[in-house]
Amino acid sequence: DGGITQSPKYLFRKEGQNVTLSCEQNLNHDAMYWYRQDPGQGLRLIYYSQIVNDFQKGDIAEGYSVSREKKESFPLTVTSAQKNPTAFYLCASSMLAGGPHEQFFGPGTRLTVL
Amino acid sequence: QKEVEQDPGPLSVPEGAIVSLNCTYSNSAFQYFMWYRQYSRKGPELLMYTYSSGNKEDGRFTAQVDKSSKYISLFIRDSQPSDSATYLCAMNTGFQKLVFGTGTRLLVSP
After folding, report:
1. Closest CA to B97 of A63, A42, A96
2. Do A91 and A32 touch, CB atoms closer than 8 A?
3. Are B5 and B59 in contact (CB under 8 A)?
4. pLDDT value, residue B2
5. In the structure, what pLDDT confidence band is assigned to residue A45 with cuts at 50, 70 and 90?
6. For the segment A89-114, what is each residue's pLDDT rounded down to a tens digit?
């Protein structure tokens, strides 16, 4: 089955630690995205990538970093510089060109800072 | 002012009711409009998309876009308890960056 997987489902972090969230897709999509979802604020874009070895900051990139070494993978690192990292993190992917550019989402990772 | 406005709800209806969910937006360049459904603690799933103005129907769901009013709607007929979820509207100009509404929480009681 084609789809997007995220791991882990739940993640706990101590203050001052960096953590990396995994996102893998087998849809052969060119573009991948990371969003953060907080109650009452909808989805906010952290980073996105349209091609391997290239990525752009979204609206709330401070305190986060990403890499895109393979088309299928787009890991997100939440660094200690992110002051309020507790949130639900969603990864998505889409075709780069043509069509309505629907984004398909993974199941999410819930990060809690202890 | 947010680019996309959506009433957070919750919207409570009895089973079988017709549900109307709405978003307004300010950017007249938006051309692609989508509705996602998100169950609690899950990722959003794409329900419907429409391009430009008009209606699109898929089973019990109808998506409507009125670009002149900058207003989009999702109608759910014969609503079911399984429709209880948060509904997110999203839109873009034709490039990849989607702008999302905050979501409306729908509760359908048996």
Report:
1. A96
2. yes
3. no
4. 82
5. very high
6. 999 998 875 455 688 999 999 999 88
Which ranges of chain B would DSSP assign to H, the alpha helix?
none
Tokens of B61: 């769901």
- pLDDT band for position A87 (cuts 50, 70, 90): very high
Chain B interface mutation, best of A4, A32, A56, A101, highest count of B Cβ atoms under 10 Å? A101
Locus of tokens 């992110």: A82
Best mutation site among B36, B91, B98, B104 for testing chain A: the one with the most A CBs within 10 Å?
Answer: B98
Contacts of A44 (CB under 8 A, 6+ apart): A35, A36, A37, A38, A58, A59, A60
Q: Which residue of A has its CA nearest to B37?
A: A105
Q: Do A101 and B46 touch (CB under 8 A)?
A: no
Tell me how far apart the alpha carbons of residues A60 and A62 are, in angstroms, rounded to a whole number.
6
Least CB–CB distance from B43: residue in A41, A100, A106: A106
